[in-house]
Write a structure and sequence with these properties.
- The protein is mostly helical.
- The protein has one domain.
- It has 5 helices and no strands.
- The radius of gyration is 21 Å and the shape is elongated.
């Protein structure tokens, strides 16, 4: 007699491992979604809550840096000279 396991889409350990794999693959938006789902289904999972907080802080910092770079590089290219001086000219910024 063969017993097959039924799929368990809300399995705590599987969701946590899925979030780790997505983080390793640099798919942080999807990983954050899985962690949000995990913390909603299992509010006592402290590891998932800590990972979610860490990931959201990292995403926020990345977004701030990206917007700062966008301002300097695209909106006001004259600031490149003001911020980086001669280095920007040498590196073909």
């Amino acid at each position: 007699m063969f017993i097959a396991f039924r799929p368990q889409p809300n399995n705590e350990k599987a969701l946590y491992r899925k979030s780790k794999v997505l983080q390793e693959k640099l798919r942080s938006d999807e990983a954050a979604g899985v962690l949000r789902r995990l913390t909603r289904l299992y509010p006592n999972n402290k590891g998932a809550a800590a990972d979610l907080a860490r990931l959201e802080a990292k995403q926020k910092k990345h977004k701030e840096n990206e917007s700062r770079y966008h301002y300097v590089r695209i909106i006001n290219p004259f600031l490149i000279f003001l911020v980086f001086g001669d280095w920007a000219e040498e590196s073909q910024f």
